[in-house]
Structure formats: C-alpha cells, structure tokens
Amino acid sequence: MRKPGRRRAAPKDRGVVPAGSELGELAEEARYVPSAEHKGRGHRFPIQGRLRTDATECPRDIELRDAQRWLREALAAGDVGGIWEPDTYPQLAWRRVEDTVFEARVSNRQLGEYHGYPITRAEAPRWLS
C-alpha cells in the first residue's frame, strides 16, 4: 500500500536532481545497451532483433555510437524524468534529434544502462526543446 502523502514524479515531468547526484558524472558513466525488442531486420546493432509487436522499432540507420552520444547529451542537459532515487540513474531521458524524439529507459539503475526507442511528438515531454 502506498504511503499517504507520498508523491512520485509524473513520468513526463522534468526530473529534479537528487542531492549528491551530478549530471555530468552520470552522463559520462551511462551506457546505451541496445534492446532486441526494439530492433527489426536490417539494423546496425550487434544483436539479433526480436521486435515486439507492441514496441516502437528503432530507425535502421542509427549507429551505436550515435545512440550512446544522444543518451549522454540528454543526461548532461538534465532532460530526464520519472523515478529517480539518490545514488541511482533517472528512469527516463529524452533527446530530440532533428524531427525525432528518442526516449531512453533505464534497464539497470545501479550501472546506468539504458535502452531507447523513438516516440511520437504527443508522447514527448512538452518542455523538451
């Protein structure tokens, strides 16, 4: 049962950095780990795709180094949200690349491993520039 008066951040609200957390350090240590569930045939990642029927497919022309850079840029800029407890990584990070918004979701909160996928404009946080 939930504690009375306890409020979690709405997933699309911009995250507040917990005391003791440093965005730059988190960004340097975070790592993009591709998820087979968002990869179809013909992608450029070193995994075999197993695209889920309800998952958004990643564009096939994205390179691993680009996804890694976008994740680190999003974290460094504070474009994060969702659940974020001290001594861990934020649940979500967003990065706009041209006309596409990518959402990264933490896969391992202690190690800073994320997977990502494109989302629609309607799904993107309103504050994201």
Key terms:
129 residues; alpha+beta; 5-stranded mixed beta sheet
Could you give a short description of this structure?
The chain is an alpha+beta fold.
Structural class: alpha+beta
Main beta sheet, described?
Answer: 5 strands, mixed
Give the tally of β-strands: 5
- Total count of helical runs of at least 4 residues: 2
Number of domains: 1
Indicate the radius of gyration in whole angstroms.
15 Å
Measured distance between first and last alpha carbons: 37 Å
Residues in helix, %: 10-25%
Q: Based on CA inertia axes, which overall geometry fits?
A: globular
Average of the residue pLDDT scores = 83
Q: Which sequence of strands runs across the widest sheet?
A: 1-5-4-3-2
Describe, in plain words, how this protein is organized in 3D.
The chain is of the alpha+beta class and 129 residues long. The protein has one domain. 16% of the residues lie in helices and 20% in strands. The chain has 2 helices and 5 strands; from the N terminus they run H-E-H-E-E-E-E. A 5-stranded mixed β-sheet has the order 1-5-4-3-2. Strand 4 and strand 5 (113-119) form a beta hairpin. Helix 1 (23-29) runs antiparallel to helix 2 (64-77). The chain is globular and about 40 Å long. The termini are far apart.
